[in-house]
Amino acid sequence: MRSRSNSGVRLDYYQRIVHRLILAHQEPVTGLFPASNVNSHAWIRDNVYCILAVWGLSMAYKKIADQDEDRAKCYELEQSCVKLMRGLLMAMMNQKDKVEKFKMTQSPYDSLHAKYSSKNGLPVVADNEWGHLQIDAVSLYLLILAQMTASGLQIVFSLDEVSFIQNLVFYIESAYSIPDYGIWERGDKTNHGEPELNASSIGMAKAALEAMNELDLFGARGGPASVIHVLADEAHKCQAVLQSMLPRESNSKELDSGLLCVIGFPAFAVDDAQLIHNTKDAILSRLQGKYGCKRFLRDGYRTPKEDPSRLYYERWELRMFENIECEWPLFYCYLILFHAFQSDKRAVEEYASRLEKIMVRSEDGILLVPESYAVPQDLVGFEYQKPGSQVREVVGRCPFLWGQSLFILGRLLQEGFLAVGELDPLNRRLGAQKKPDVVVQVVIIAEDNEIRDKLAEHDLHVQTIAEVAPIEVQPARVLSHLYTYLGRNRKLGLSGRKSRDVGILSTSKLYSLKDRIFAFTPQFADLSRFYIASDNELMIDILKGEINFLKSAWDLLGRPLVTLVLKRIHLDQDKIPLAMIQTMRKLKSGYINGTRVMLGSLKDFLNTSAITDLSFLGSTEDGYPDRLHPDVQTYLDEHLLRSFSNRSTMNLRGGQLRPRTLRRRMSCKGAIKKTRSINVDSDNLGMEGPSPLTERRLSSIVPPPWLQANKQSHVSVFATTPEEGPTSSPLSLGNELIRENIYPVDPHHSRSAIDRRSEFVRQQEMPKILIQRHRAETNFADTEVEELIAMLRETENLEEQGDILQYLVDTQGLDFNTAGLGFKNKSEENATPNANNAAGTGTDPDNAAHPSSATANSNNSHCIGNTSNISSSSSNISNHNNMSPHENNHDSSQSEGMLEEGRVVTVRDLLKGLYEKACQQKLWGLVRHTAGMLGKRVEDLAKAVTDLLVRQKQVTVGMPPNNEHTITAPLPEVELRQLIHDAYGDDESTAMLTQELMVYLAMFIRTEPQLFHEMLRLRVGLIIQVMAKELSRTLNCDGEAASEHLLNLSPFEMKNLLYHILSGKEFAVSSVARGNLSIVSCKSSRVSKKSQIGLGDPEGEDALIATIDDRQGQWLRRRRLDGALNRVPRDFYSRVWTVLEKCQGLAIEGRVLQQSLTQEMTPGELKFALEVETALNQIPQPEYRQLVVEALMVLTLVTEHNMVPSLGGVIYVEHLVHKANQLFLEDQRKVQGDATLCCAKIKDGKEQQQAASGMLLCGGAAYICQHLYDSAPSGSYGTMTYMSRAVALVLDCVPKHGEMECAIS
């Protein structure tokens, strides 16, 4: 016998056990483990867990290799791991088409299979015969692959395999929004095959994404091509959703022991130590038993009450499984590992001894971990009476390899053969430790020298885009395009990344590509396609939010770097807006909203920022890894030249700076070239200030006066926000109707254009009269339309134009051609040669010097001259009013027209022009309305709704009670827009406002989730109503005026008002110039819960009245807010469950919550809470809803203090509220309270009538006196007192006589 150290002997013992229990089952061909001797299916999840013991043992041998034999054993064990991991990889690669398809559809039928044949790795059940979509299984595979690779194993052999694994990363990237079947393959716990969002899947995906990021799959031998890239934002979204869900597992499972693998080994997915602690405690207190832990509450699997003949359960039978669920020793193995990683020796020993008691000894004395323990059939009755009292028996497989493998790992850790760091070479276990504060670096770059100089006046010194070279600054969408090349593989038919979203974490890094360095501006700075972006204050607010977000979310090497470009479109009347200057000064000071920041230049931050290498852009497949992929090369060449650089020379927007003649020449020259839209990404439109792009948009057609800057002598600079594409710019006009008014033409003679022009010039000398004419042949039934269009031309008030266009839309439709009202152009007009061009551009210099008096001659000729150039591609021309050379002609009230052959000018075109105008003048009410009529959608609407839904907040749109639509699952953008549209009918402004508010709600839930505690449904319609009510109260105006004020708030103020309403903070309204309102927080002590009116302070006596008035109405307001936001007291829903258990049902506004709900659902289940919520949502008035919630709370007190064994039949909750109201009014009469002025008056005939017609004198909702709504809950005249009395009177079960202890907490 050779001598062996003790540790060697002990390891050999474990090696024998691993060999007999685990490796003996490994299939020699595929390397996979069958589920059992009789079932040859191999599950991904079980296989990965099985091999962990083998991997652990191989590392233990590597450490003590004191003989060659040990090295050999170590190698054998390592190769078994590689064999298994490659077996699974081959099985999944056979389904590569599914991976590709799933990126698009995310359908459960296109998912990778959850199990394969262990004989040949092929599928064993059809797509629709099993709940295959289990994101946690694929994620676990990727996580362990990363850990094993980091420990030195080489599992991936070729670059094709690398691309496949990169695509698996895309497969799990959206785990936070994909409902799956989860770790127990069931989905909803009734097992009807409905997938749901599972915290365990999201946690595992987050861990896999983090572990895979920047990992070289070839280990130390790899190069840039074998590195996996993950967008940090995707992992962070998973983390945010996970944190909002824990300790809940899903909608139907309020708790699940499977979460142990997310909070501890192997995933370590939670960064918040307190949350880890809470989740573990919840599992131990509610699921732990003598024989392990239950998987989840009311889990019927393998219980004696389960009907083995069917897979699914009836909803009512779930209650039978309570307290007799099977207990799984597997979870003790997880707990041992959990505590070992926290180096809590005492807890490890405790669970180890518990586990040993319930393990089964085999014939040769090896301890086996059984799958689960069930209550024997004949002892079920006793177990129901006293849970946990009966002896259980083993059911299922023994040994259960998943558990056995984790048990062996635990043993290796306990005996010191392994250190925790060896099982976690990527150091994921350190995630929950405290990190140092993040410093956010901010770089501001000016678009051109002029803006740089303007900033320098304020002592803010920045560089221009040209000066930061060689670093190139690009918009985020360039990065998003580059990322679509990641993971492309022709041989495998894989297409790369599908999602176009790049978040702030991805744009806060620098990127190197060969010898170039790129900085990207954040995505929110790109959003110029929607009106929110033309509100500078809101953009600054979003920036502050993102900086704050970086502080908490950044965990990469280096510091985050936010790059912003200050452009022309940000200027307000050619000045830098004050809000921007103030923010930059704050940034310069080093702190902003509690976050440390550094303002500097790009080159200062090169060494401190995170830099990622975009090496995947090489064309490796063609054998030139060092060269860029040809498509990327062309994309970059086209884009980079155009995106931001060389702007200062193309200074078109600041038109007033150059002589008029030059501008005119530019607008004619190369008009055809300018109309071409080659190489322009549709996402580019309107995003970048003056550039060749803008030049392309210069149309040389004269705009009608209502599209010109209203009486401003300078050229207005404004951000266009076209929707999605070249054709959607303001007006591609050839408006013959308007032309008709300019040239009084004798219908019987057709004259050449030149004659007409001379007549036109003659007309200039006379006072201008608008003459309406039409050809004799055409009969217009409807002259009204013509008059309207004439009015439209005359009026300069944008609001009036809006009204006229609204009328035209209603009567004629969006596509009604206003040009059709004139007569058709004669063809010779098109033929007028370019001579006109010369005439147009060669105007005398005087003309240029006085913009407002450009002569008609030049206007006209210039216009016609261009027609020939333009008509060829007129669809892409847009007409930028600020470019037209005759800006202010309409001061002399003359109308200009478009002379362009065959162009149609629809009402839609006119609306677009109006929309842009309103954006520029910041008339927000009109902007919202026209945006609605044009059918625009908020940029990230679908993303915003998903953000709310995945954090378990349902959203409803529309005004309650009749047309409220609930959104419960993510929808595509177009469907959402349609749903919102249907909910509000013709009210375009509110439909737009709804979209806008959804985006703000999503911003808040990302940055301040605490605002949404105890709210399950966000009812946007009600929130809008409450916002209007609050404004009307604050401004002392009626409802109509208040909703007008509301719709005219700027996006920033709207977000601010929403914030004050969500947080319940006091606010006052102060008026700003131009009639805009501004919302400011109140901190004054005088105001308790009520806001001041900031529109001129009341003085003297009025002030006194204001203070008294302030005290009044505060409870009504609180109830109204809480009711509208659906806020409920803590643990409200689970307490309602206890009430429901003791009565036959609760009736609320005609909806009855049946007692049977308690059979189907557990108290903390989200599904139950949603049922209660749906019933409460039947109540249209928020303050009344809140009183109903209070009544329910009183009922819960009755049940919790066990005053009565049962509450009897169906309880009508509203009866309690109305009874309380009666009692309140009786008391009011006795004490001559305020209510005697309205509801408590002694009734006479007239009032009887009024009550019958449904109106209370005080205007209280639902026949409840306003003064009751406005009573505090506590106190002898408080609402709770009256509710309690009402409960005592209405419910028969409460004893009427005798002494009772009655303390209301």
UniProtKB/TrEMBL annotation:
GO cellular component entries: phosphorylase kinase complex; plasma membrane
Keywords: Calmodulin-binding, Carbohydrate metabolism, Cell membrane, Glycogen metabolism, Lipoprotein, Membrane, Phosphoprotein, Prenylation
Annotated Pfam families: Glyco_hydro_15 (PF00723), KPBB_C (PF19292)
Gene Ontology BP annotations: glycogen metabolic process
Domain GH15-like positions: 8-1021
GO molecular function, one term: calmodulin binding
PANTHER family the record matches: PHOSPHORYLASE B KINASE REGULATORY SUBUNIT, PHOSPHORYLASE B KINASE REGULATORY SUBUNIT ALPHA-RELATED
Function: Phosphorylase b kinase catalyzes the phosphorylation of serine in certain substrates, including troponin I. The alpha chain may bind calmodulin.
Protein name, per record: Phosphorylase b kinase regulatory subunit
Gene: LOC117146743
